[in-house]
Amino acid sequence: MTGFRRFVERLAKGSSALGWKTARGIVDWLKAGEKVSDFVIRLVFLGIPVAIAWSLLTASTAVMWGFVVLWCIAAWRAAQPAREEKAKEAGLHPDDIADLLWELTGDRKGVHLARVAAQLSKETGRSWRVKDVRKTLEAAGVPVRHSVRVQGQGVAVGVHRQDIPGSPSPAPVEPLPGGVEPQVNPATATATTPYTRQLGGGAVATFTPDPRQPNRTAVEVVHPEDQ
């Protein structure tokens, strides 16, 4: 029953969005005319197909049901949130996602979604599952492959380095909480230099790469109430 209710709610939401979008499009098209005569001509051209469509719907049951099916499909798609809205709901900016993928990939061929989920769980303080990561990546426009081979970790669903937006680069070094300055070793600056990132809700995450194990990074999240 719950699934059916969600189905109906999504159709209702999509129908509303589709109706408003169609109405706004028609109004904008009618307003595009520079003269009153342009408005009248556009109104006539709009009325003719509407009258034909209405006559077909009322005359044939098959056409009516076909229209209903097409409308439901369009409403279902219209109810899907935009990519920007999905990324916003997840609390992650596409640039942050790309940076995280590059950090976890390092010099390997890619990164598994399970590894990304574990890292996001540490950063955000909430549980991330593989399917959550996949939806977030798809919302950000990052392709997900069914088989990505990572050295020492085997083959699993993940992101190949060729599909990660941007290019790998050392993360900018910011002052650590409490005024502690990171110790930088020029020989291994990109491997041992701690850096911070602002998370949602004012939380600050501090990343400390392990120079002995390049695929491991210690993460400490400080929330505003802890400061």
Please name the defining characteristics of this protein.
227 residues, alpha+beta, three-stranded antiparallel beta sheet, elongated
Structural overview:
This protein has 227 residues and is of the alpha+beta class. The chain contains 8 helices and 6 strands, in the order H-H-H-H-H-E-H-H-E-E-H-E-E-E. It has helices at 2-31, 36-59, 61-78, 83-90, 94-105, 113-124, 130-139, 189-192, and strands at residues 110-112, 145-150, 154-160, 195-198, 204-209, 217-222. The strands form 2 sheets. Strands 1-3-2 form a 3-stranded antiparallel β-sheet. A hairpin with a 5-residue loop joins strand 4 and strand 5 (204-209). Helix 6 crosses helix 7 (130-139). The longest helix is centred in the first third of the chain and has 30 residues, at 2-31.
Structure summary:
The chain has 227 residues and is an alpha+beta fold. The protein is built from eight helices and six strands; from the N terminus they run H-H-H-H-H-E-H-H-E-E-H-E-E-E. The strands form two sheets. A three-stranded antiparallel sheet has the order 1-3-2. A three-stranded antiparallel sheet has the order 4-5-6, covered by helices on one side.
